[in-house]
Design goal:
Layout lengths: L17 E4 L3 E4 H4 L8 E4 L8 E4 L11 E2 L5 H4 L4 E8 L2 E8 L10 E2 L10 H7 L6
Parallel strand pairs: 5-8
Antiparallel strand pairs: 1-7, 2-4, 3-4, 6-7
Length: about 140
């Protein structure tokens, strides 16, 4: 079965092990419509494509862009998630850190829900919960 690119753990990792920072070019949702990347991550959803921000790793990404995305409409797929994010401010910029959400065994594929934390939320709910994965 061809699943495309992915990242497997080379060794076992305990819960809360930092995988790395999600890197890329910050663009508006409107601008991201010109990207052919399948690894876009929402940074800020204002409800307006002209002001909502996306991280596009096409030109400035790293290994984090290859983490497998799950089908967040499937409960079975959601159970595969073993990586989560936290967004934080440092030096005047927002950074996104990826970390294991449970123990990950060697050889296990790293799975992330790229839409985690924003399902069914409006702009006010996003503002109250902050800029981090709250799934």
């Amino acid at each position: 079965e061809n699943l495309g690119f992915g990242v497997k753990a080379l060794t076992s990792m305990p819960r809360h092990t930092i995988i790395g920072e999600y890197l890329g070019e910050v663009v508006t949702m409107e601008q991201s419509s010109q990207s052919n990347s399948d690894s876009l991550m929402v940074l800020l959803d204002t409800g307006d494509p002209k002001t909502s921000l996306i991280i596009d790793p096409t030109r400035a990404g790293n290994i984090a862009r290859f983490l497998s995305g799950i089908n967040n409409r499937s409960l079975m797929s959601k159970r595969k998630v073993n990586v989560r994010t936290r967004r934080f401010f440092m030096d005047g910029k927002v950074h996104i850190c990826l970390f294991t959400s449970r123990r990950v065994e060697a050889g296990e594929i790293l799975n992330y829900d790229y839409n985690a934390g924003n399902e069914g939320k409006d702009v006010d709910q996003w503002a109250r919960t902050g800029f981090y994965d709250t799934s």
